Every structure is written in structure tokens, then in C-alpha cells.
Amino acid sequence: MSKLEAYKIWLGQGAAQTEAGRTTRSQAMRVIERNLAELGMPYQDLDAAWQADRFASLRDRLKAMRQNARQGGQDYRILMPESTKPLNRLSNWGSWLAQYGRFLAGEPPVSGKDADRIRQYVLEQYIETGREAGHSHTEVLVRDVNDALGLNQAWPNICQALAGPKFQELAQVPAPEQKGADQSSATVFRFDLRSDGVSPPALEASITEQRGPATGNTSPLPVNLILYGPPGTGKTYATAAEALRLCGEPVPEDRAAVMAAYQRLVSEERIAFVTFHQSLSYEEFIEGRQPTTDAGDGAEGTGFRLETKPGIFRRIAKRAQDNRGPVHGENAVSLAGRQVFKMSIGRAHGTVDSDVFDAAIKDGYTYLDWEDIDWSADKYSSAAAILETCQSEGKLEGPVTSQSGQVLHTDTFRNRLSINDIIVVSKGNSLIRAIGEVIGDYEYVPRPDGRFSHRRKVRWLWLNLDGVPVHEIYHTNFIQPTIYRLRQDGLNVTALERYLNSSLPEAKTDPQAFVLIIDEINRANISKVFGELITLLEPDKRLGQANALTLQLPYSGDHFGVPSNLHILGTMNTADRSIALLDTALRRRFSFREMMPKPSVLAQAAAETGLNLPLLLERMNARIEYLYDREHQIGHAYFTSCTSRRDVDAVMRHKVIPLLAEYFFEDWAKSAAVLGDLEPHEGPIKGGFLTRERLKAPPGFEESDAALRYRWALRGEDEGFDYERLLAP
User: Fold this and answer.
1) Which of 215, 565, 579, 598 is the most buried (most CB within 10 A)?
2) Is this prediction's pTM over 0.85?
């Protein structure tokens, strides 16, 4: 008995219910095996391919073939020369190849687990059947699956099995749209069966192909680190060097070089910085609803609405998740020699023109509205000819000049936009939702409604339906015109090229590291800011790790996980709040590195000022620790920039002494003790920093009855401070 005949018997034991289904699967495996050499595979048969890498390279080849077919290529004819629906069939063949791998591994056709039975049943009865019939979508009612499999009200199990990534990988479908109540018998899952479908999940999938089957390897563990210590110990100063290390960059010894490298990574959007404060919220940090209109999309607005906007954490997490590292070679997309244009294509989902954008992504075109006139004739390479025709044949109301939209935008779209140029598709005036490369000349294809009849062929390189902020790639928000060229000096070339290359199937390099710096992390309400996502910060629960988790966000409804190549670096001032009082959930998920004052750092400043600054700092901190605690010491950073005695006086007068007064709640005797000015008597004091005089009791108070009261004051600026007593042995 041949291996494929045994496979058919195996399928008949539960993996395929019909003879036709078993025959189709077996024939598909026979065709793949017969064409291994033409597919570029160095294997004699499927057994050898399985032993080599568990079909990883072969499944990657099928995915590349789907990508080629989506772009109009004929690569699929190696396996299916007569097919008219290669995308759907290739998706099914990918699922069957995974199934054949289970057969070769000796696994049972259907395990005894309900979840596996559910996935297998829906795959065969809904997904594969729908694809073969040419359907664009299929809907699965939870009650029907429960009844067909004879389960006992297993609504939650069915929902979890169908909504999870395991079924998406098995069936090669994007995440489904869920309708109705959550985890009930009436829940409906709507699956998009087209690799280039137009539903939001499928649109995203059409650009961001999965990177191939998991190999069992996990990504390097991410770093969650908090630098903590008293004020002025250089915590924020140290984050620049630490961020460079986490990004895998060399750390120069020269501070100016460190900051130059740090600013370069900030400009590349690999490092983001945020300061926590008491008013910071989940909506600002993760995602929230913000008021917006359609202004900026090349059409009149539809009025005020609330739109979900990602916060700083979700934005950098998305950049890290999409990143595949620097792409080099002939497949890399570079901006060199290209123009970049902003373009509006319809409006956002849920508005009247949203279907135009969906069609653009699905079909691989960009569309322009304005006058429904064929501009294909050679004479329209002149803007003057376009103007003349708009004036004589145009149907839009109002006077027509060379600056009118129907003239200016048409000329830009037809004549100024060149093949190989890049278009950035707007979502409102502050977000981008797609980026593509123009690969075709102007075409006129009339539409029934007389709108959006002008098109150019586009290879879409990146898509995010939620949109990302414009400022990640451009220095300012978009403006109203439908299409215009972006200024080269306003582009963040590195960030834009990263987006352009992030979804290329050929990009196999290691993802780059990203760092989010959270300054003063203990000053915010952690549970309020992170919400349920505090769990996702744990290194082993990051995407790509053994215990990876995702959660559904409350505003967008998206499933969200934190990528492993995103490191989080925080700073914490222990004088603001003791580390013992820090949120326990945060403490458990972060490592802590103490940064205490380093008097030795002040050797150079001491030489320039003529004062023994290291000893000065040691003396004050020893007394603060005695009178208060070690977490309220004074950091060396207060004095590092001092180059003269006058500079030291200014630091003591305007920073150190006010800080001492705050620490001791205006108990000036303790401040004087720290400064070496306190004396053990009840009379006046003239210290090196502070003076004290005894206040006279008001009339009516007997001296013997009145409490001792003193007036403390700083020595005058003209007089200056005397450091002798503070530095004395």
C-alpha cells in the first residue's frame, strides 16, 4: 500500500467525511510531490520534505505562490494549470499539507479533545467547502456546530476554538468577525475566505502575510527594567545609554556621541519616551476614543464622531511587532529616487466612500474621483489641456482655474505621479492607513455611479486599518487636497522605509529591538494606566514566548499582545514614593536597578570649583540618612555641571536647601544639622548657609511661658556661603 493510499484511509477515520473530500486531498498531495523539483524544493518526496523541516519551507513556498497570484502572477500554474480560483485553492492546499504532516507524524485523524474536533469539523464543513464553491465568506453558528458534534452546550469551547490563532493557522484564515452575544449558542463567526478579501481582518491579512509556521523556538526574553534611586542620581540621564544597549547599539564613552546615537534611534521611531503623571489614563497610554471628523480625506466631512485612537504604548508595540529588521538586497524597497505623495482614497470604514478604499486594497489600485472624463489621450499630459476640457465639458459647479481640484489633482494623479513613486493613504488628516508603490500608468475605467473612474496600479506594501499617526513618517499633519507631493525634507526616511519593507514576504531578518522609556513610572496610577495589560508585560507572556497571551482591547475590540522585541525601561524617584509602596503587580513584572549618589563622579567638578564636592556630598547624605532615610539623599547630578564657586552656591541656594526644607517639612533645625550649621544652644546662629535669630515674644506673653521661636534665613547672595564647617573633619 502506498503512503497516499494509507493517507486516504487515515482521512476516512474522521479527518474527511466524504469520499470526494478524501480523494481531493490525496490528489493534491500527489500533485505537490510530483512537482517538488519545479517548486524549487530539494526533496525527492514529501516524506523527505517532512523530515527536513516539517514542511516549513514547502508551506512558505505555497504562501509565496499565493502572494504572486494576488499580484497577478502565474506561478500557481505549476500546481494547478487550469485553475480560475488559485487563491482559494492554494489556501486549502496549505491546510491539507498541514493535515498530511499530522498523518506522517502518526497523530490520530481527530483527537479526543473537543477543541480539535470542533476545528476539524468547521475546517471541512465550512471553510474548505466555501472556498471550493467560490464563496467570499462563510458564517458559522455556534449552535449548529454543537448539535452536529453532539456536544453538551459547549458554547464557550466552540467560541474559544474558532476565535484562536490555532484555528487561523490550521485553516489559513484571518481572525473572524464575531456577531451576536459573546460565547453563547447564538454567536456567529464570519470568516473571510479570500486571501485578498475586503473585510477589515482580511484586508490586514492581504498585506501582512504570516511569516511561516512556528519552529518551536522562542524569541529572546524582553527586558523590563526600572532604574530607581534618590533625585539627582542620573536615572533619566542613564536611560539614553541603557536604551542603546537594549537596542543592540554600541554605547560610546563620549556623552555627546551617546546622545547623537540616542536621537537617531528616536528619529527612527525605535525609542519612545513618556513621563508618567497622576492624570495619565489608559486612554492616553493604550487606546481610547477621541473626537474626529472626516476633514482631510478629500471630501466634505460627515460630522463629529468618536474614533478609537492608539496610545503611545500600542503604537510602539505595533511598530515592534511589524518590524522584521533591516532589509537589504534586490527585494528591499528604498525611497532613493522616488517621490512620496499623500493621497485620500474614499473615507474611513463606515462612511459613504469606504468601499472605494476596500476595493483599492483588494484589486491593487489607487482611485481618483473628480470629473468623470477619460484623460487617457496623449494631449492630457499637459495641465493646460486638462483645464480646457474641464472648462468645456466638466460638470462640477463653479469657476474652473488651474488651481481647481479637478485640474490640479487630475494633473498630479495622471502626470506628476510616476511609476515607482510611493503613495501614503490618509485616514483623516492625522493618520495613515496604507502605503503602496505605483506600478502602472493612468487608466480610465468608468463606474456605474460615475465616480472614482481614474486609477493607477499599485503594489500595496503596508496596511493598518486603525491607522498610525502621521508624525511617525512626516513632520506635520496632512492637509485637505486629495493628492499632493510630500516635502522630502519633512519625511522620516528611515521610519517610512521600515514600513515599506515590514510586510515583504522575502524579509526574513531578525526584528530590531524597540525601547519604551517611562520616566517617573511610580507617579501614575499603574492599575489605571495599564489596566488588564499588566499581565501581558511579563517576559514569558510576550508574543513569541512559551506562554504568550493576547487580550481583547475594550475600545477597538482587537486582540493585542506585547511583542518580545519591545523592552520597557522605567525610572523611579524614591523620594517621591518609597519602593516598598510601589504597585505590587508592577514590582513582580520588572527588575530593579538601584542608582545611588556617586560622589566620585564629582572629581572633575571639584577641581574646577576649588571645593571638595565629593566630601560635601558624602557629609550631607550621611546626615540625611541619619535624620530621614537613605532614599532621600541628594544625587551627584546636582553638581556635575558646576565649574565655579558661584555655580555651587547657586545649586545650594536654589536646589539643595529648598529640597532639604521639603524633606523635613520646614523643620529648619534639621536642615541646619545637614549643612553643619546647627549649634547646641538657644541663642543666635551665624552658620555657613543659614542664620538664626531668636524671636521676641509678643506683648502679654511672659518670657517664661512663651515657647522658643526662631527666624531662619539664608545668607545673602553678596555674602555667599561658607563651606568650612560642612567640610571640616
Assistant:
1) 565
2) no
